[in-house]
Amino acid sequence: MTDTPSVLSSAVAETAAAGPTRFTLRQENAGSRARLDHARPRGPVRRLARVIGRRLTRTVVVDGVLDLGGRRVLAGDDQAWGMVQIGHRVWSGRAGRRVEDRLESPAPLKLDPLGLLDSVAGLRTPGYGDDPGPERHLVARTDRGTIEVWLDGGRVHRIRRDDEGDVSTMTLHETDVDADALDWTRLPAPAT
């Protein structure tokens, strides 16, 4: 048994101190699809439910830049969708559009890199993991599933959150990206 809450809080603080970083976030919605298949209605609503269900339960992969210290995210997928998040304010839509032309929306529940790191820093339950060292793998249970965190050199390297079958996996890549040189006024193109 490790002191998971303090280890993870320290790791998130170290990650923020390292500066902006590139990330890849993969969201697999298998749990949502299973719940939809189990509760499938009959009749004319059935076709509509299938169409909506297929769109909602697909796997989504986004790449971007996460500035944890500045509480902002610039991300896009390979389907020409982009997102800018500054604090709790989020703008999303077709890549290349100006942020000021978009309506602000609440942070997405699943594709939320800031929320994912906040959930790691806010864990208050003990967890388990491997022996201390430069690379660690820690696991903590939550009300809805598990959160696994891989640390490398005291910083967060990967997070995997499983919420009742809906799995978010975020991998942090290169650090110390010059986030101020990026265009935060437009939704990013796929090659952010």
Radius of gyration: 18 Å
Second-tier CATH architecture: Clam
The residue-averaged pLDDT reads 81
Poorly predicted runs are none
Helix content: 10-25%
The helix/strand order is: HEHHEEEEHEEEEE
* Backbone structural class: alpha+beta
CATH topology assignment: outer membrane lipoprotein receptor (LolB), chain A
Percent strand: 35-45%
Number of discrete domains? 1
- Annotation field: number of helices: 4
CATH class: Mainly Beta
Termini gap: 39 Å
How many beta strands in the DSSP annotation?
10
Shape label: globular
Layout: helices, strands, pairs:
Elements: H1 4-17, E1 21-29, H2 30-38, H3 44-56, E2 60-67, E3 72-77, E4 81-86, E5 89-94, H4 113-121, E6 127-129, E7 135-141, E8 145-152, E9 155-163, E10 166-175
Antiparallel strand pairs: 1-2, 1-10, 2-3, 3-4, 4-5, 6-7, 7-8, 8-9, 9-10
Walk me through the structure.
- The protein is an alpha+beta fold and 192 residues long.
- It has one domain: outer membrane lipoprotein receptor (LolB), chain A, CATH 2.50.20.
- Helices cover 23% and strands 38% of the residues.
- The chain contains four helices and ten strands.
- A ten-stranded antiparallel β-sheet has the order 5-4-3-2-1-10-9-8-7-6.
- A hairpin with a 2-residue loop joins strand 8 and strand 9.
- Helix 1 packs across helix 4.
- The protein is globular.
- The termini are far apart.
